[in-house]
Design goal:
With about 350 residues, the protein is an alpha/beta fold. It contains ten helices and 15 strands.
Length: about 350
């Protein structure tokens, strides 16, 4: 069996290569990919060569255990596949099932049962592609823990930002707002249920945001929870400026090798603002006694069924044209939202 695999050859250079797969082992599945989704966050850092040299890829995923960031390399973590064949030790009823796999972009994979997640009935293949990012959105909401009647704001309306906004739109908040520079994404945020969306480059819009968050009140105001999802470390300064006394800034962005000066002066220091990291590879320690990955995935599937994230797919590109897909995401950010690969029958 041969597979078509996507390789990051060097920064800004990808190639689809044909590679032979080893033989199917008794405990393995042969997966044929229907669709895979490009991550506009971490994956684009790989494409642009912006990952720190001393980092490793996600050790929580079997596909990347112990793999360092050295070109050429494979990456990707959102594949929806059909099970074509199973090894001798796997029950035959798995053949033909559709599963989600945290695997790099490729036409075929070998995996064990514990490395795939069966797609529930009622969720189609394009919806299922959003499982990883929806799990991230659920994790962000849990880490931010907005309470009844609080104010929340999401900076950045990329895929994860939009998914989080859709989740938070279902909370009984006093106010929910989003900040996004691209007009198309502001429209999508409104469609996701965000009542108030602001352009950070528009002075009157930001003044209106300050009014919404009661920052003009002499007694102070601000958002109880600010989610930073822009991918730009400079946005942390805006997050601090918008945060309330003893509020929380939840950092969901991974900046890679990007650096920026952060003002930890008077507002941050005097207002006892908390800055916390949110990373989906693990469960928050305070939830570990009651939550596990399976429970969080169940919530993510439920959120997918309730919000229909497949509407965010902007481009479905044949896998053979992978290089064009990355150029599109890198150079035409406003035109591209969720870019996915489609694999031939």
């Amino acid at each position: 069996m041969k597979a078509q695999q996507l390789w990051f050859v060097k920064p800004f250079d990808v190639a689809v290569r044909e590679e032979a797969l080893p033989g199917l082992q008794p405990d393995q599945l042969l997966l044929k990919t229907r669709y895979s989704a490009i991550s506009a966050g971490t994956e684009m850092l790989v494409y642009r060569g912006q990952l720190p040299a001393d980092t490793t890829l996600d050790d929580s995923l079997a596909a990347y255990e112990g793999q360092s960031v050295e070109y050429p390399l494979q990456y990707g973590y959102a594949c929806v596949c059909d099970i074509e064949a199973v090894g001798a030790d796997v029950a035959s009823h798995w053949v033909g099932k559709t599963v989600f796999a945290f695997m790099p972009h490729a036409s075929h994979h070998l995996a064990t049962l514990d490395a795939v997640i069966e797609v529930p009935k009622g969720i189609d293949a394009k919806q299922a592609l959003f499982l990883a990012n929806m799990e991230t959105a659920v994790n962000l909401a849990q880490d931010g823990n907005p309470r009844l009647g609080e104010r929340a704001i999401v900076l950045g309306q990329g895929i994860v930002g939009l998914l989080l906004s859709g989740v938070l739109a279902q909370f009984p908040l006093d106010s929910l707002a989003a900040v996004e520079a691209l007009p198309g994404r502001r429209t999508l945020a409104q469609q996701a249920g965000v009542p108030s969306v602001f352009d950070p480059n528009n002075a009157s819009a930001m003044a209106a945001l300050h009014e919404l968050l009661a920052l003009t009140d002499p007694q102070g105001g601000g958002a109880d929870v600010v989610f930073e999802l822009t991918g730009s470390p400079e946005a942390l300064n805006l997050a601090v400026d918008l945060c309330a006394y003893s509020g929380t800034v939840v950092v969901g962005s991974w900046y890679g090798s990007k650096r920026a000066e952060i003002n930890l002066g008077e507002r941050f220091h005097r207002n006892r603002i908390n800055i916390v990291s949110s990373q989906v590879s693990s469960i928050a320690p305070e939830l570990g006694g009651r939550w596990n990955k399976a429970r969080r995935f169940a919530v993510a599937w439920n959120m997918i069924s309730r919000t229909d994230p497949a509407r965010l797919v902007s481009h479905c590109i044949p896998f053979a044209e992978a290089a064009e897909a990355y150029r599109l995401l890198d150079q035409q950010t406003e035109e591209s939202m969720q870019v996915i690969f489609e694999y031939p029958e």
